[in-house]
Amino acid sequence: MKRFIEGEDRSQSVLFPERLDDYIGEDNPVRVVDVFVDELDLATLGFEGAAPEATGRPAYHPATLLKLYIYGYLNRIQSSRRLERETQRNVELMWLTGRLAPDFKTIADFRKDNGAAIKKVCSHFIGLCRETKLFSEAVVAIDGSKFKAVNNTDRNFSERKLKARLAQLEESVGRYLEELDRADRDPTRVTDARVSHIKNKITIIRARMKDLALLEPQIEASTDGQISLTDPDARCIATSGKGTAIVGYNVQTAVDLKNHLIVAHEVTNLGHDRTQLASMAIKAREAIGSTELTVLADRGYFSGKEILACEQSGITALVPKTMTSNNRAKGLFDKRDFHYVPETDEYECPAKQRAIRRFETVEKGLVLHKYWPSACPRCPIKSRCTTGEYRRITRWESEAVIDSMQERLDRMPEIARLRRQTVEHPYATLKSWMGATHFLTRTISKVGTEMSLHVLAYNLKRVMQILGLQQTIQMMKA
Ligand code: SF4
Fold first, then answer.
1. What is the pLDDT of residues 81-128, one digit of tens each?
2. Topology of the domain comprising 137-150+233-321+410-445
3. CB of 391 closer than 6 angstroms to any ligand 1 atom
4. How far apart are CA 177 and CA 201, in angstroms?
5. Distance between Cα 389 and ligand 1 center (Å)
6. Structural contact between residues 165 and 278, judged by C-beta atoms closer than 8 angstroms
7. How far is the centre of ligand 1, averaged over its atoms, from the C-alpha of 385 (Å)?
């Protein structure tokens, strides 16, 4: 006999009504969200409305809304409108919220008004991970990644972009005016409807040009020569591919080497990572609760000042040097061919001559020492060294810090692979969760709240994978 698996009859009543709890298995991650939020002291964390008001309409408890958001970020439902819909049809959410279904405005306002408290919840979970000894022996990898803002690329302007846009509009007006001229010369070839459409178009474009011209003083007044109209804090940031700049934020994370947990994060709107190393490393060390820290980062973080700041804070930085000189490409010796002799404060050049220290200068706030040998004019291999009279070697006053870092890097060739494996994991996961979408909120502080929710969801999911559900619940209750 041929047959299919049969579903239940919708109109069939059941003898023993099923409980909501029966739909949620013991191994359902939603149970972790429930325990986690229930164990938090929301008033101490600074959530608004943790104590009920004596008068007025009762409000939703912040625990309900926090559970809703954590569940949403764990399940790729970040939008308040979608969360509202899910509360009405998703059994897990009905269980989690006790069948409460706040409207999207209430949900959105909760995220907007409790940014600082939500960030503290994210830090609190990192603290739980620390107490459970989920972090390695104080080694983190730092990296930055660009995330799109709610601001469309066409609504971000720099002086160059503005001029190009105005020129484009001017050209369009010119084309329309030519068409009007043709209509004047031979009215039979252009219909009246078309003429009126063109006139309308010209009026719209001219009004647009007038609006755009008003942006010029704003761009001039901005600190970095650009403005964004939808999200004023978003910035046009170059990415590695040519012509692939995005308008968004540069998110920094410090990821623990052992379990790939994000121990610290920061949302910035800088187009580079050069100034982030020390601050991120200090944040990561505080989060891990260690007195020491080794930090791995890529060349984008190489900055003498930042590496020195790490060293002075007791943090060991491992950052490969950036190659700024193009001497090697020109077939000339580069700085690596000159060996510094600390005992005499001299360099030994490829011709075994001593380059002595000549004078000191200050460039971009760095004190630099200049060295060169007296033997350059008579050197037999000068053509491979310099096109000038003398080959000058520049040394930063604190370059010993860079030298010892390079020695450490040379002893650990596996560092680059380790760094990649560590930081790429969370970014790949976060970006696949976010999909092709962008941050949903505007301004850096609110985007920071969104990122904290992403990081909390990532860390929660990771810990559930590492410890298992029951042990994660135990860790929260301990
Ligand atoms: S040109 Fe000067 S610095 Fe270069 S190898 Fe010769 S002596 Fe040394």
1. 999 999 999 999 999 999 999 999 999 999 999 999 999 999 999 999
2. Nucleotidyltransferase; domain 5 (3.30.420)
3. yes
4. 10
5. 10
6. no
7. 6
